[in-house]
Amino acid sequence: MAKTQELGAEKTVRLSQGSLTYRERGVGPAVVFVHGLLVNADLWRHEVPLLAEAGFRCLAPDWPLGGHALPMDSGADLTPPGVAALIEEFLKALDLTDVTLVGNDTGGALVQVLMACRPERVGRVVLVSCDTQEVFFPAPFKQTAKLAHVPGALWLVAQSLRLRFLYRLPTVFGLITKRPIPAEIADSYLLPMRRSSEIRRDLAKFLRGVDSRHTVEAFATFGGYDRPVLLVWAKEERLFPVALAERLRDRLPDARLELVEDSYTFIPEDRPGVVGALVGKFAG
Questions:
Q1: Tens digits of per-residue pLDDT, 23-46?
Q2: If you compute the radius of gyration of the chain from its CA atoms, what whole number of angstroms results?
Q3: What's 5-283's CATH class?
Q4: Considering all CA atoms of the chain, what is the largest pairwise distance in Å, rounded to the nearest integer?
Q5: Cα gap 78→98, rounded to integer Å
């Protein structure tokens, strides 16, 4: 349901598990973005224009994590490994090679799973303050994930979020952004699960599959990933301590860490353009 025109032309691609919408802007080496839970491609609205103008082809899909407009097929595998495979299939469907893959929050965990098992099309990786190792999900969100096992619970959560003052709750956006998200963007993120039972079904599938074993196993395996990795981490991170990023840096053969001031997990919301500038230098 990504709306902002800054992301470029809206397109749709049919994959084995269902159809994905994505936005595309620019010409040049491919940069593919992977957002986290309960948001969509609008997260990248400040980063894509910078990179497109710098000579990159930017592709920002709405991944099936609760903020997407098109429900997946009813039998789709939306476990974390299933969605990681969907990312790889997206790259293959569009014949993208030597891709720079950028993942934030939950999306970073999915990128790590992909790095460990299907890295062939990925030329370099940018992980932006994200789930990793034993932290998938962080403690404040583990209880939220359990709601996926309770019939009707996600509907109640979705309807309660009609009250915008609740967006600043710790279990919504309060722990991941220092500043309020603009109302129209927050609506873009949250309206799909409020309006569609099929979107809630997709979200519940993903939540039920979340387990730190996926990121722990990826961490144990992807030491062999020898292509460049940039870690962009919020210095004031409240969910994913900087120590996790330091362990990632030390684990990967070609990784460096950049700390970002005055931000929480959603650096693209708190510090618009910072991620785009760093990705441009890194991938350029």
A1: 999 999 999 999 999 999 999 999
A2: 17
A3: alpha beta
A4: 48
A5: 25
Q: CA-CA distance, 33 to 126, in Å (whole number)?
A: 9
Q: From CA 103, how far away is CA 92, in angstroms rounded?
A: 18
Going by the DSSP 8-state scheme, the letter that residue 71 receives in this structure is: P
Strand partners, 9: 24
Q: Which residues contact 238 (CB under 8 A, 6 or more apart)?
A: 175, 176, 264, 265
CA distance 219 to 198: 32
Calpha distance 284→271 (Å, rounded): 21
Residue 187: both structure tokens together: 């609506």
Q: How many CB atoms lie within 10 A of CB 144?
A: 17
Task: For residue 182, give Cα distances in angstroms to 34, 43, 173, 177.
Answer: 21, 11, 12, 11
Provide the residue ranges of all domains of the chain, joining segments of one domain with +.
5-283
Asked if residue 219 lies in contact with residue 251, where contact means CB atoms within 8 angstroms, the answer is yes
Q: Output the pTM of the full model.
A: 0.95
pLDDT of residue 1: 47
Q: What are the residue ranges of helices labelled H in 75-148?
A: 80-93, 106-117, 139-146
- Contact predicate 212/136, CB 8 Å: yes
Whether 85 contacts 63, CB under 8 Å: no
Measure the CA–CA gap between 268 and 6, rounded to whole angstroms.
14
Q: How remote is the C-alpha of 17 from its chain's centroid?
A: 18
